[in-house]
Amino acid sequence: MNIASLNRWQAAAIHLALSALIAATAFGLIIALWYPGAYFEAMGGRNLLIILVSVDVCIGPLLTLVVFNPAKKELRRDLAIIAAFQVAALSYGAWITFGARPVFTVFARDHFDVVAASELDAADLALAPPEFLGLSLTGPRVVGVRMPEDVDERNAVIFATATGKDLQNFPRYFVPYSELSGEVKKSAKPLNSLLKKHPEAIDAIRAAAVEAGRPESLLLYVPLRARLHAMTAVLDARDFHVITLAPIDPY
């Protein structure tokens, strides 16, 4: 296509279509790999998406609309600068989104906490048991955590809460989720019991049962806390496996 044959509106429309296609592909991969299911909403992915779309999809075509003039000798240079700006913005946004991705869903005490990669210090992660050293690239791993028995370590964890860190931010105390089945059993409640607090959630509960492929009578729930929202972790009543997240505030 000869860009000299286009007017500024046609050029901006083509730029918008290409930008939207690239952004949609990138965001689709990000959501599918890093923020599966309800984790996207729970971790504030919608806000990140809005910012990235505003910068990458809208501003680029608008700049093209402003600078496009087939008679300009510097037109190709100007368009290349705009494209470079968009690539940089998309790359930066993807990097921020990558760091904010959920890597662990941690059962602690009586609920789950979702921990993002950016919430784990490298020094703390280096002290984790070998099976918990790697950070997932395909959604969070479900693990458990125990308060240390050593008094000094316990006090250190308690003191760290003043700096914004809690037990789930210390991978050295992670344990396999299956080791906490007794604690999970004590905390889990029948999924249907949520209707007493949230009768409006009946459709979400039924949807969770359909997604789980099990009757509601075989489903339990435990509260889940994430960056922006509290949600409901739906469990299999037989082995307490986390089946899905339901967009229901359990509190």
Molecular structure report:
Helix 1 runs antiparallel to helix 3, helix 1 runs parallel beside helix 4 and helix 3 runs antiparallel to helix 4. The protein starts with 7 loop residues before the first helix and ends in a 5-residue tail after the last strand. The model has no long low-confidence stretch (mean pLDDT 87). Helix content is 46%, strand content 17%. Strands 1, 2, 3, 4, 5, 6, 7 and 8 form an 8-stranded mixed β-sheet that branches. The protein has 9 helices and 8 strands.
- Helical stretch tally: 9
**What portion of the residues fall into strands of 2 or more residues?**
15-25%
Q: Secondary-structure element sequence?
A: HHHHEEHEHEHEHHEEE
How many domains in all?
3
The geometry reads as elongated
Q: List the uncertain runs.
A: none
Present the secondary structure layout:
Elements: H1 8-34, H2 39-42, H3 45-67, H4 75-99, E1 102-108, E2 111-116, H5 122-125, E3 141-145, H6 151-160, E4 174-176, H7 181-187, E5 189-190, H8 194-197, H9 202-212, E6 219-225, E7 230-236, E8 242-246
Parallel strand pairs: 1-3, 2-6
Antiparallel strand pairs: 1-2, 3-4, 5-6, 6-7, 7-8
Helix pairs in contact: 1-3, 1-4, 3-4
